[in-house]
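Milestone M4 deliverable, item 7.
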Amino acid sequence: MTSTSTAESTRRERLAARRRSPVWRVINALGSLKLALLLLVTIAIACAVATFTESRFDTKVAQAYIYKAPWFTVWLGVLCVNLFAVTLTRWPWQRKHLGFVITHYGIITLLIGAMIGSHFGFEGNVTLHRGAPPRDRITTSHSVLQIQNAATGEFGVDPFDVELVRPTEARPRDFAVPGTNCKLRLDANAASLGWDEHLVASGPSARPGITINFATQMMGQRVSLPFVLPASGAMSRDFFGLARVSFGPALPSLPPYRITESQLTFAKFAPVVQSESGAATGIRTALSPDGATLTIILPDGKAAEFDRARTTGRPQQLGAATITPGEYWPDFTLVAGRPATASAEPKNPAVLVRVEAPRLPKSGEVLRPRLDLAPAPDGIAYQLGRGNYAISRGVTKVGETFPLGWADWKATLAESVPHAHIESTRRPATAGEQGPPGFRARLIGSDGRSGPPQWIGSGDSATLALDDASVRVGYGLQTRPVPFTIGLKNFEVPRLEGTQTPANFIATVEFRDPATGATKEDVAQMNHPASWPGTAFALVTGLNYKFSQAQWNPEDLGETTLQVLYDPGWLLKWTGSLAICVGIFIMFYLRPKKA
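Output delivered:
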């Protein structure tokens, strides 16, 4: 008998002896094919449901109920045990088992890495401002409910996401209030909350207030914005990202938005351009050799031709520009320093053209619409503009309406109160109104009595009261501390040549370790994240924080938002993936030859 036959016979005897061992019976049960199929089918169904949930509802829902749910983690853990046990059932291993074992251990390593990354890693973001103090906390995507006893200062934090739980009157959610016998009850939810804001008359020490109503027939919207004149500066509010509305003590003095030029246009020579403000419209004019046709070329390259004789003295609209051909000289010459014509023949045609057009934005300049308001003796003075330039001024009284030039939006001075303050309350949003998700909350006493309810939105806080109890409730995204600080040193937005289209976003950031004082400067730009600590060991193991460019503020180039990724399971996931590939290659391409 050969040595190979002897080894195989010995192996079979060991396998037969295992059938009588309780330990190996458990190992065989854990490594059974039936258990593997049950686990894989369940995971496959769960992943299919999660995929449907992501497409139909939200990724957050799929993660909460499947991917990051405790049962799914336990199921993956049992699958790892099954994979490990099935490799033990082949012990002692032979050469033909090498690919099989490597593949199974690769899957185990990959799953462990995924579970570590899911439970110990995180994704978030951080908004940085140039010149502001460095940040040491990251805003995550997990929502929390913060409850503080106003009397004692006791504080509690509970994980809670209204988009997942959705409390109702039939199924409310109760939370304990630290230091009291009361409980916080959430009994309604809203996918979007809006504000109800209105002026309330106050004592003589209060400042003047106004309410402006905005309306558009095209979109069927009505919006009311109250303002109170601050002690200094102006009160500014954003109008759906479309414009900026401000109420201050006086209208700001701004240069005109539209530029007026006089262009003496020749058929044979370059035009002579004179601007009243010194700024240029960028519009070019040209005259045909016979002086009959005037050509206008806009800054974007669009051109139009006009019959010079027929349009003389008649304004012609071309885009946002107004072109008015004026006096014409068929044979231009200067007599005593003034334009004249030497003959009636078109030997040297020239025409005086008046050009009115909006200003061209400078590099990085955003000419956003604005409405400035200020008290006036006969009502309220208003000024329409774009960017830091004025378009028109006027005065309006209570009940009067004036156009804004923002599509078909119009504004009406609804009220003017000499002494007022603004009261704001949350409410479920109306059709077409957008706002954060939120819930309705109230305090419930130990005797079952209820305090007045309030709506609280994501990012908001409110004070709830019941008798002598007062509780501060906040709801928003959880922040997570990091063992270093990050500050913004510079932020640049290079543009594509000749356009205002961003070509890149470049954030220069500085990291600092408070414990050691070590600092590091790095650059986050498109497709190139910054990292901390950024060492070879951190990059290989995944114990590294990556900062990628996420958002920017066109109105403030000193602000940027970076996405943060920390995945301590990175190395295990990549090692497991590589082992799976190696194991499959061995099984299919390096099989031992049969004797």
